[in-house]
Amino acid sequence: MRAASDAAFPGRVTVFRDRRLPAPATPAGYAALIEAYRLNVPLPRRLFAIGIRHRIVEDDAWRLLTPRHAPAGDLTGHLVFALRYEGLDLAILKRLFLCIGPEPVEALVRAAPTGAHARRIWFLYEWLTGRLLDLPDASAGAYVAVLDPRIQFPGETRSIRRQRVRDNLPGTPDFCPLVFRTEALERLAAGDLASRARAVAAQVPRDLLARTAAFLLLKDSRSSYAIEGEHPPQDRIQRWGRAIGEAGRHPLDLDDLLRLQRLVIGDARFVRLGIRREGGFVGEHDRETRLPLPGHVSARPEDLASLLGGLLAFANGPAAALDPVIAAAVLAFGFVYVHPFEDGNGRLHRYLIHHVLAARGFNPPGVVFPVSAAILRHIEAYRRALESYSERLLPAVEWLPTARHNIQVLNDTADFYRFFDATPHAEFLQACVIQTIEVDLPDEAAFLRRYDSFRDGVTAIVDMPDRMIDLLFRFILQGNGQLSGRARRREFQALTDAEAAAVEALYADIFGERS
Question: What are the angstrom distances between the C-alpha of 395 and each of 40, 88, 226, 268, 416?
């Protein structure tokens, strides 16, 4: 524990922890607190500092405010600055509170017992650490929101008499990632994607919608395996598709996650099912030394019980207060960062997206959006979303290689998985959901309409069972509109030249260049 009076706040710099500033400036808010108290935490995506000019300068990594925004150069000044301009970073705040102990926070509150920021800091200290400060309950001051809803998306609100605050955090102390308001996500909140999805589905006849839904479900299951580089037998793809189709029908629990892992793995001879008992990472090994080269470090095995408890509590409670797409992103990406299993994490991570959307009634009845197919089409953007936090997490994790070419994490990292900035993940998932609504669903329905026209047209040309019509269609599709000589000599040798030409002309008329 470090005394607040011992902190040495940084002066003007051009580089902060290997991150170059757009101009010379003095770190403020979280950046100043991190430096002054030597906090080993993932850096926020954007840090703040006070520039020397009277205009705001910003890039992807920094926002430089003007000298008139400069905080007092002490703990209180930088804490208030962070809450006012940067929103909440719960991982930094918890590490700070554990570093300085209760006395500086008690002194801060006693100096301004009715101050809005002081009462917010007081509440956050007790909420994050689980320790009560030696302070009497607040007796004055208007109730103030703990999380500024103008900066970050809030959860449901409940009044806390002790500090006279409104607790609107969208999670619990065991799991509470936050999402910043951005232009893209504001459009999500205003656009009502669920209504747009129902409107698109309403334009499709009911019998055709049922067939469309079945195709999309199979497509999503196949894509989820393909993302992992796997191509399992059709029966496994269908079983996983059925599991996805049942997502959201009942609350999640650990037994359900374990059941889904068994289902998705299939052959478990070389995989230990259940919760990990060792460290874990996502990455490669050095070819010569076999040393781990992690791109992401998973949560420590000793932290998995509390982290999974927090994830499940979020899924069955606080998630309901957030927009469904944002809640799905928070839960699913939180799960994949924790990586609680040896294998199957990626597919379960994408299942959780379906779970939240279905549980919240976001999907049209009977329709599962092929989110995995959209992810597969935008796999590089998906990786960038995953790396948006993993790259900032890695420097804060201390680890050693083990004799089994795994890693052992040496420091306490649990809070880095409880509290992270899920904004890039929500923006990515939003783009995927929009694509499923505006492209995949109508395109699949349109394809089935054209296919039905093709099937009826073929039947008018030659009497043929549906399975043969389907095979005929696939051969013509593979031949870019023509039936190959091989198919004419073998499967469809009974077709006359005139019938084959008529079928090809029918295909061209219905599908044309759209195939």
Answer: 8, 21, 30, 34, 12
